[in-house]
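Please check this record.
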Amino acid sequence: MKIAVVGSGCAGLGAVYALNEYSSHEVHLYEADSRPGGHANTIKFTNPDNGESTMVDTAFMVFSPPSYPNFTRLLRLLNVSVAETSMSFSLTRDNGQFEWASDISSFFCQTSNLFNPRVWRMLWDILRFNACARRFIVEYEASPTANEMTIGEYLTKNGYSDAFRDDYLMPLTAAIWSTSPETCATGYTAQSLLRYLHNHHLLQLFSKPLWLTIKGGSIEYVNKIVDSLPAGAWRPSTPVTSVSSHVVDGKHRVTLVTHDGKSEEYDHVILATHSDTTLQILSAGGLVTEEERRVLGGFSWTKNEAVLHSDTAVMPKNKSAWSAWNYYTYSKPQEKGTVTGNSDIVTVTSSMNVLQHVDITKYGPIFSTLNPRHDLKHDLIQARVAYDHPAFDASVSTQLFSLHVDADD
């Protein structure tokens, strides 16, 4: 059979690999961008001081084998080398007035925090939250109201402190989902967050699974799949505008149309694209059902910019707090007149020196910052890349449930 895969992110690449490796089908891979990989985007970084260059990731950077079993097996089949990495986290508030980091040695990186009751209450609530979260997941698993309680409501109901909310959980959640803390608190369900943290083993202090990063960057696995395609099968810079289905000589056929008006016939087409793109392609071809329109249209996306640079101004003032993931926020006035909470812009800096073991003495500091609040020094910026991230709000849980039901049917 002749099969087209649309989209060369992880899902599309996985489909192409499986089809080429375990079948004799003719497979073509379409991609709107000029490069394959989607969020697996490895960029060359050059040390401005000595000209030394290395490859670093800007979006997808780490994975945990227990949470990514299929992806882990794919890397093993491709013989792609991996290395252990850190998942340390830090928070900087108000230009360094308050800072903490997740490692035991750096939690009290500011000595004054040893005598700050707010910090000790936050630490107690972290322990309590981790212990109670699993019970909540089990109790609400089959509850019809599981997707009704927001994160903010869960925290209020269970008496968690403002310090825990504003200086730990909301920054952590915003960093994970690239969404503003306020949106996370009021628009996302407690069930979705707690299940995510549980599935990724982020609710346990001890016996945590290893987190890994790909040596040489995620481009290593991307290139191994794309380079193995036959001549003419890889079709970059070729956006697909529509697919339509019909019957020819009693056989089911799918017509795929690209942005330049060219069309090609296939036996099957796999759409491995974001939900909004998938809906647009199906609608243009007249194939979308009302159920598909409801489910695919129920997902929303947020746009974020990642900047690859070497400006240390985005990192914690206290260097002992420098972590793999570094969250930067400003306080904002609350309704009660107090000054707490978090700014609406999500600013997270990934230290590639920590995450991907890049030698800082040879290549200098290397950071990938999502939505930088600082005006970064222009001569220290090496790349700007826009990414779309899914919003894991309450509607997503409903749509994912619908997908599971449809799959079972």
Summary: The domain at 88-208+301-390 is CATH 3.90.660 (Polyamine Oxidase; Chain A, domain 2). The mean pLDDT is 90. The chain has two domains: 2-40+62-82+215-288, 88-208+301-390. The first strand starts at residue 2 and ends at 6.
